[in-house]
Design goal:
By secondary structure, this protein is an alpha+beta fold. The chain is built from 20 helices and 11 strands.
Length: 572
């Protein structure tokens, strides 16, 4: 594959052989049915959306308009015209609505559209994520009358869709949603909400879900209900609430994130206690998968920026992709990207598999696996997104530190993925809960990893042996932690990282095995690089010694997504 000097103007779907292969393997019918749609979307992302993202970030941040010219309270947020057009376009193209047609698309298709969107504008991907989450909760869990009235407003594809928000965070609680103090007062066919929501992204979207505690209700998370809050009432007047201010943020500045005082705010009940917290977690589970998609999308853009620049940059008499140190650094980004994509799409595939299962079915293995794989994907991909953005700046050099390139914005935007929808510590605590006897999450993890390893081609040894050894060590670690609650708390984040690496390696092995059936060893080499960096013993991880140049010999094929003859495995 030949990379053009400029990334803007390229079709980000057509360039992405890895995405096409993943969709072809996980949802082959939809991959064929939506190929032209995804290609058109990829061209739009690489051109107009990228231009909009740059303009909004540098010149067109949103602002609050409290009053109109007549002095009437309007309490609205104004966007620049390019953002308004991009927002209209992305929903018209079906990034939410495709899942709710008469013949609905797989969620894998719209998750892939989220991944593509974040390659240009993670700020726009944020409201897309919440809109999808709110639509999912309304569709699956809302009372029939509420579903009938509101779902179409989020899923329509005529450019007039409302967008969503998830309002859970409060000033005193942070990630502790159970500490919510916002109250809900029953008034028959609706409720009135009162309280402060401290971190409300897409604050003016149209429809939000909010946690609140019925007046005189029980404490803790079990005492929470979930309520649907329109920004405007049926007569078009603003719903009573006050936008206190917009946050001045490090990144994702295009999406307005505000503090909202709910003051006798009209809302309808989606779920009473104790189901309110569970349904909000359903929305956040969806958002966590999209967070992983955003993270790998930004990694992909970092990779594109690097290879496009370096393939045309000459220094010291050579194109710099011929220098081994440059090759090594590019390959680091590439390998982490492909590992992260494997994790993110595993979580997305698990979500699709769990879509029709019951919220209360504790023993449902599909739901357990969806939650385990999502926690691992959300953690690992977010950590690596920052590494990729930083690495891209370092490889390109001083030019990448300027706003002539998207890389400064990429680095700022990547940081948010570590805290959106729960930081690493929250994912670690979620993992601990799932590993307990109630959910048997480690059994689901072990079954998935061993199912891949035991069915894979022997051509993938010694990578398979390294995965088996790492799994044995992980099993011992889990047994130790489950026997001591204090130690479990101490080491939960380390376990999260360990399990994410093991699963990523296994998923890469699954992809490599599929490619080897066609005689292509490219993914097998990616797997080998990942295992050497994350699962092997420290001396091998240092990668210093004779025979370590096999990756460089295959550099052009690896970064160009070209087939590599399987005979190369014997030579390495």
């Amino acid at each position: 594959m030949k990379y053009e000097k400029e990334t803007r103007g390229q079709n980000f779907y057509a360039l992405d052989a890895n995405l096409q292969a993943i969709l072809g393997r996980l949802c082959p019918d939809d991959a064929r049915a939506y190929e032209d749609h995804l290609s058109s979307f990829g061209a739009w992302v690489g051109s107009f959306l990228d231009e909009e993202a740059d303009y909004t970030d540098r010149f067109g941040k949103p602002r609050i308009e409290t009053y109109d010219r007549y002095g009437e309270t309007v309490n609205r947020i104004a966007h620049n015209a390019l953002w308004e057009q991009a927002s209209e376009d992305v929903y018209r193209r079906g990034i939410v609505g495709l899942n709710y047609q008469d013949d609905p698309a797989s969620f894998l298709v719209t998750f892939a559209m989220g991944y593509l969107t974040s390659q240009s504008d993670p700020s726009l991907h944020c409201p897309v994520t919440m809109t999808g989450a709110v639509a999912y909760v309304i569709d699956k869990f809302a009372p029939p009358a509420v579903r009938e009235k509101y779902l179409h407003q989020l899923t329509r594809m005529d450019g007039r869709a409302l967008t969503g928000g998830t309002w859970a965070t409060e000033l005193h609680g942070g990630s502790d949603v159970g500490a919510t103090t916002t109250t809900a007062r029953d008034e028959g066919d609706h409720v009135r909400l009162n309280g402060l929501k401290w971190f409300t992204s897409n604050a003016n979207g149209g429809l939000a879900v909010a946690t609140a505690r019925p007046v005189d209700g029980d404490g803790g998370s079990s005492g929470l209900g979930l309520y649907l809050v329109p920004t405007h009432l049926d007569d078009g007047s603003p719903n009573p609430m006050r936008l206190r201010r917009l946050k001045d943020k490090l990144g994702t500045v295009g999406v307005p994130t505000g503090e909202i005082d709910l003051e006798e705010t009209w809302a309808v009940e989606l779920a009473p206690p104790p189901l309110g917290f569970k349904l909000m977690m359903e929305a956040l589970e969806f958002s966590r998968i999209q967070n992983a998609m955003a993270s790998v999308g930004m990694q992909r853009r970092a990779f594109l920026e690097v290879v496009s620049y370096c393939a045309h940059r000459e220094a010291f008499g050579n194109i710099i992709t011929r220098y081994p140190m440059v090759q090594d650094e590019i390959l680091k980004i590439l390998v982490q990207l492909e590992a992260g994509m494997a994790l993110a799409f595993e979580a997305a595939h698990a979500f699709q598999g769990a879509h029709d299962t019951s919220l209360d079915d504790v023993d449902n293995r599909a739901r357990t696996w969806m939650r385990v794989s999502t926690a691992l994907a959300k953690y690992q991909t977010a950590e690596r997104a920052i590494d990729a953005a930083r690495g891209a700046i370092e490889i390109i050099g001083g030019n990448a530190y300027t706003y002539d390139y998207c890389t400064p914005r990429l680095l700022r935007d990547a940081q948010v993925t570590t805290v959106w929808e729960g930081p690493a510590n929250i994912q670690a605590l979620e993992l601990l809960r799932l590993l307990g006897n109630r959910y048997a999450g480690f059994e689901a993890f072990e079954t998935r990893v061993l199912g891949i390893v035991e069915g894979a081609s022997g051509q993938l040894d010694p990578a398979l042996a390294a995965i088996r050894q790492a799994l044995d060590e992980c099993r011992d670690a889990v047994a130790f932690m489950m026997s001591d609650a204090a130690e479990a708390q101490r080491h939960a984040r380390k376990l999260l990282a360990m399990m994410a690496d093991i699963l990523a390696a296994a998923l890469l092995a699954e992809e490599a095995d599929a490619e080897l059936k066609d005689g292509n060893a490219r993914k097998a080499l990616v797997l080998r690089l990942f295992v050497e960096a994350h699962l092997d013993t420290p001396p091998a991880r240092r990668g210093i010694g004779p025979g370590q140049d096999w990756a460089q010999r295959n550099f052009e094929a690896l970064v160009g997504y070209e087939a590599i003859d399987a005979a190369v495995l014997e030579a390495t």
